Amino acid sequence: MKEILLCKYGEIVLKGANRRYFEESLCKTMRFRAKHFGNFSITASQSTLIIEPLDDMADLEGMFDSASKVFGIVGISRCAVCEKEMGDIVRTTLAYIPPFLDGKKTFKVEAKRSDKRFPLDSIAIAREVGGQILSALPRLRVDVHNPEIVVHVEIREHAAYVHAGQFKGAGGMPVGTNGKALLLLSGGIDSPVAGYMIAKRGVQLEAVHFESFPYTSERAREKVMELAREIAQYAGSFDVHVVSLTHIQEELVKACDEDYFTLLLRRYMMAIADRIAHRRGCGGLITGESLGQVASQTMQAIGVTDPLATLPVFRPCIGMDKEEIIKISRKIGTFETSIQPYEDCCTVFTPKHPRTRPELSKVIEQEKKLDFDALVEEALASATITHIRVEF
Ligand code: ATP
Ligand code: MG
Question: Would the pTM of this model clear 0.85, i.e. be above it?
C-alpha cells in the first residue's frame, strides 16, 4: 500500500494573485529537504502539497519530521493512496486504518470530496466507509460528537486518500517570501526565539554574533553556531557574521564611565548590525529584547540604542515574559543549548550599577570620548562569515 504526505497550506491560501509565488517557494523548500530523504515527487494541488515517495528507499518518516518544520504548512497527514472508486477506498481503509484504531472505542468518518465528479457525496462516502469499519471491527462504536479518532477520506484531483488525522504543521509563511532580516544572535534564550518568530513570518534570516575574544571563548562561539543550526531546522540555511567587539570594549573601559558600558556597547552593536544589514540587502533587524527584562531593556535604554538603527527593528519577544519565551525555546529545541553556561560579550565588563533610565544626551557625551565611526569600521573589518546549513 502506498503512503504519501498531504501538507496543507496556511495563510498562502489568502494570497490571491501572489499565491503562485508563495506556492513555488514552498515547493522549492520541500524539494530541497526531500533530496536528503530519497526520491520523492512533490506537487501542489488544491491548497495542498502532495509528497509522494517514488521508491521503497525513500524515508517517509524522516520527510514527515522535516516537513513539519517548514513554515507555510498548517497541517500534515500521512495517508494511504487509493483509486477514486468506493471498492478500493473501502479496501484501503480496512487495510490501513485498523492499527490507528488499536485501543480505541469510538470513531467517526469524515469525507471530503473536492472532485465533485465523484458519484457519492461526502455524507454517503462517510456512511459507507463507517459501516464497513463497524462490520470489520464490531467492538467499535461511532460517536459523531466526541470520537477518539476521526478517519478521513479525501477525494481529490488525482486520487483518493485515507488517513487517521492531521498533525500540526509549523504554520506561518514560506521563508523568503517576506524579505530578509538580520538577527542579532547571542547565546541566550531570547534571540533564537526571536529569529524563529520572524522567520515564521516568511523572512529569510541572516545573523550577526558579537564576541569579545579572548574574554569570550571559542566554546561560546561554537554554542552560538549550534543555536544557528537549530534555528536553521525551521528557517533554512543562513549566514552568521561573527564580529569582534574586543577592541571597542577595551577602549570603553579605558575612556568611559563604567555605568554606561552596556548601553554604549549596545549602541555599537546596533550601528554595526545596521551596516551589515544594509550591505547584505536586509530590510530589518531582529533582537530578542523583552521590555524591562534587564537594565538594558527598559523603555529608556531601548530608546538610547534604537536610534542607531536606520532599518526597522523587530522585537517579537518584547511583550513576552521569560516563561513564554522559554516555552517556545523548548518547542523549537534551542533551550538546552541556550542554557549552557558560556560567557557573552555583554557579560564581560558589566557595570555594577547599569543605568536603567539613561538620558540620551549623557550617553552621547560618553560616546564622544571615542572615535565611534572608526571603531565601527574596524569591527566590521574583523567580521567573518559562517554558512549554516540545514542539518537532517
Ligand atoms: P538573549 O537571551 O537573546 O541573550 P538577553 O536577555 O540575554 O537576550 P541582552 O543580553 O540584553 O538580553 O541582549 C538583548 C538582545 O541583544 C539579544 O536578544 C540579542 O538580540 C542582542 N544581543 C545581545 N548580545 C549579543 C551578542 N553577543 N551578539 C549578537 N546579539 C546580541
Ligand atoms: Mg544575551
Answer: yes
